[in-house]
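User: Predict the full complex structure for these chains.
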Amino acid sequence: MPVDAAPSRVALFATCLVDGLFPDVGKATARLLSRLGCSVEFPMSQTCCGQMHVNTGYPDEALPLVRNHVDTFEPYDAVVVPSGSCTGSIRHQHAEVAERAGDAALAARASAVAAKTYELSEFLVDVLGVTDVGAYFPHRVTYHSTCHSLRMLRVGERPLQLLRAVRGIDLVELPGADQCCGFGGTFAMKNSAVSTAMLADKMRAVLDTGAGVCSAGDASCLMHIGGGLSRLRTGVRTVHLAEILASTEAAS
Amino acid sequence: MTFLGMPSVASTSGHVRASRPFPDAAADALGDAQLRANLGRATATIRAKRGAVVAELPDWQELRAAGAAIKDDVLAHLDTYLEQFEQQVTARGGTVHWARDGDEANRIVLSLVRATGASEVVKVKSMATQEIGLNEALDAAGISAVETDLAELIVQLGHDTPSHILVPAIHRNRSEIREIFLREMGEVDPALTDEPRALAEAARRHLRRKFLSARVAISGANFGIASTGTLGVVESEGNGRMCLTLPRTLITVMGIEKLLPTWQDLEVFLQLLPRSSTGERMNPYTSMWTGATEGQDFHVVLLDNGRTATLSDPHGRSALRCIRCSACLNVCPVYERTGGHAYGSVYPGPIGAVLSPQLTGVADNASLPFASSLCGACYDVCPVAIDIPTMLVHLRASVAATKPALSPEHVAMGALARTMASPSRWTRALRFARFGRPLARHRALMRLLPPPLSGWVAARDLPTPPAQSLRDWWAETDGGRR
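Assistant: Here is the predicted structure of the two-chain assembly.
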């Protein structure tokens, strides 16, 4: 079901985590968008948005990453990111990092790039105007909202609208879905005991649903929840929203 | 913008410095199952109440914006408003004292109490006096300060410290409170049950004797009105009104940021505060007083204690908008699990994590800005729209700047940034990552990892690095098109 509304030049910003550790999420995003008639490019000069540096207290170290990001994505009409958190950093931190360093020109360019950057569910629902992406995923799934998607980007119901339209899916509501899983970047290591306590409650909520799959729009939160679910041998797996939406009956 | 004469280094004393790093104190608190149960139940109840009454107001977001704007105006013209307030209080028979820090405020209050000859004072619940450790200072001088708010009384009788701004005994359940009353109150019926009504009645009888004999009362203030010199306390139990009206001498300790320009501004704040704090449409008792009334001797101590230093930071000053409602504590997933004591300051939770380090200077509370997963729930509920997550990130940079350039974290962050700033170095680094595959497959190997990774693998498996990065796959297949 190709869509006509697609911008002409669309770039995929996979995020460093997907590039290095979860390439299947990037492949799924490309496959999904291509199926919708929107062929994405992967600019090879992309690396990392720098959020971890900023949030750990190293905004000056993040400056070259912001510059590289802006240089890389400036030529495109739209940038799609399979992460609410990295999209949030691009929108709310990049210009600030540049301003802090006294580079007003870079700040202006960063704001312009941020204005055409979309988290995946935003891009699908708001830009392409689709909620039924023609996916098939015959599993019981529960969805964790992720804090930055929910409270920084306000994606609201978009991911759930997309999931509800997936054929074969048994989507069960996650109690307390709006509560943090305890990842928080370096928080998970600096405050690992508190992070673990938060993770325990999130895992309990996931297990209570009886779902075999826990999904989210951020590979980072899923790495955290999945790391806990795997350590406890729960048998519940984590699958990124992009991978569910990219699945089809033909492929399964 | 910094003004001449504005101190940028805090002069702060009292209970706002954590004696242990947050992660250590938090790890201990997490092991207290009773605390976890008490906190989980209490915060869930207040969260639900707040959510219901806030949802009733269609103009809540406009109210928040108005609250923020009024407070920002006060902070931008604090010098003018403070002098106006002083003039008004003085004109109405009150005396205004200025205290640079907690020690100075304690000395002022102590000398005022001594002048009355009283050996006991009754107290209205007040964060400012908790902040400066006034009770301890009075006690050291042989004057006993009696807390009259029920929860503060529980904390005081239990030789404990508050763990929440609004509900200081939130870490105690009713059977623990019964034990404390039986042990500490004296003249309590041994048949006392843990029914809330029976516990409140025991406290009422105990306090009534104190109210009727007290000659001096000490309060804080929720608001001070600059244009009239009026002070205000909002409360639930009526103990505050007893203290404010019965004793001959009233001493109020108020942070300098508590001012509002005019009475009309209360229209905004008396909607924001009760709904955000207790989850009520309106609190039961609102007491307002102007100067010395009905022959009372009235003093107000204006407290800085690090506030002008906080005001001098453009990225941190909006923390001074805070009206101490504690909505941010009740929604915070970190606070809900650790409780307030882990923060080591009378200001716990998200607002404490941004306020305490600013009041003391970040070097003295270096772990607090990191006591958050940056989930953003605090910002959403703050009635004066303090962007706590952004401020935490700003303060983290201030903390990092105090670390030596060769600290392991600094070196690691620099090396990672240099790798990631260069696409070619990054591409090579990702190819190297596949050598980590055996690590993720063998949990025994994981346990050998050093900090900070040891903190991760203590409770979570590592993901298995792929045989090929996304970029290498893309280059090889043209994004799956070949």
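The radius of gyration of chain B is 26 Å.
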